[in-house]
Design a protein that fits this description.
Length: 336
């Protein structure tokens, strides 16, 4: 009876692991997938952040850290999130439309930003900018359309706030997707890029925006997006990521569908690089995990909000990612 139970569990595990495999990853077992094998990497624990892929170890701070940061950026894009465009398109026009006065006070305006992509076409999207009445510059708070209430609250506390269209209810990234067909970016990384392109204009408004105090926040998939924006854009000085799950605050090696969370291939297919699904059941072959985002954000400020009973974000996984990055600071006695 015990043997039959073990066999049943094994068959259930194999059938679950092989379910929903995208066509790009067909050809089980996955260990034979050329993309998975191409990593040449095997490590059940989180990859060392202060060690190059070739095994060379470095110290932090140290002269080789910038090179390792670039390698982490490359690995995250190549194996997980997809690649960004190879250019930052120039901002060619900003059309501002004032909004009617608000009963809450302050100033609100709609701004349409237009960029010249690859020197061939205009791509536009609209942001909403709010700020207190009175003299700036103000610290800047960035968030997505479905968190607009957060922006209103930020203005009441003395921030300028930008609401950009990087959300399910308002996603204006399609133009950039068409303009850069060679970028393999998934939806979440592409939305985070809108935050950066919004900053291109916002930071030009030096009388209004304090460019030395820029923060971004998001919840769930937008929490992942906020982390990506901060990781790939050093102009963001602080990030609040709420319940970001995987691959955000929770690395794939420490979570899966079996922890009521997400492993590779469990999220919508367009969120990440499609080939990421090939690592389902082979997470130990990933040469980087999402704790690499924390490495790129450090030493800037970050607040990760997670609930003890949050089903999509096991607290043990969050702790694993956090402790993997303690090497950037002096651990407190409780962390030793």
């Amino acid at each position: 009876a015990i043997l039959m139970t073990i066999l049943s569990l094994l068959l259930l595990t194999l059938s679950t692991a092989s379910a929903g495999v995208p066509s790009i990853c067909k050809g089980w077992p996955m260990a034979n997938s050329s993309f998975v094998n191409s990593t040449g990497y095997l490590n059940p624990d989180l990859p060392e952040l202060l060690q190059f892929l070739n095994g060379t170890k470095i110290s932090k701070p140290g002269p080789n850290w910038d090179a390792r940061r670039q390698e982490i950026k490359h690995l995250l894009q190549h194996y997980m999130y997809g690649t960004l465009p190879h250019e930052i398109p120039p901002l060619v026009h900003a059309a501002t439309t004032p909004a009617p006065p608000s009963r809450r006070g302050g100033v609100t305006k709609q701004v349409e930003l237009t960029f010249w992509a690859l020197g061939t076409q205009n791509v536009s999207f609209k942001i909403e900018l709010m700020h207190p009445s009175g003299q700036g510059p103000f610290p800047l708070f960035l968030t997505q359309t479905n968190h607009r209430r957060w922006a209103i609250k930020a203005v009441s506390r003395g921030y300028a706030a930008c609401v950009y269209p990087g959300a399910d209810v308002n996603d204006q990234t399609a133009g950039f997707k068409r303009a850069y067909p060679n970028a393999t970016w998934g939806t979440i990384l592409r939305r985070s890029w809108l935050a950066s392109r919004s900053l291109d204009w916002l930071l030009e408004q030096s009388d209004l925006i304090d460019g030395s105090r820029v923060s971004i926040a998001g919840h769930s998939r937008n929490g992942k997006q906020a982390m990506l924006a901060a990781a790939f854009d050093s102009r963001v000085h602080s990030v609040v990521s709420s319940s970001s799950g995987s691959p955000g605050m929770t690395p794939y090696r420490a979570t899966s569908a079996f922890t009521f969370a997400e492993g590779p291939g469990d999220a919508p297919a367009d969120w990440w690089l499609p080939q990421l699904s090939c690592f389902k059941g082979h997470e130990h072959r990933l040469p980087i995990d999402s704790h690499g985002l924390l490495a790129l954000i450090a030493p800037r400020h970050m607040l990760a909000a997670t609930a003890w009973t949050d089903g999509c974000e096991p607290t043990w996984a969050v702790e694993r990612a956090y402790k993997a990055c303690l090497l950037y600071t002096s651990p407190s006695p409780r962390d030793s």
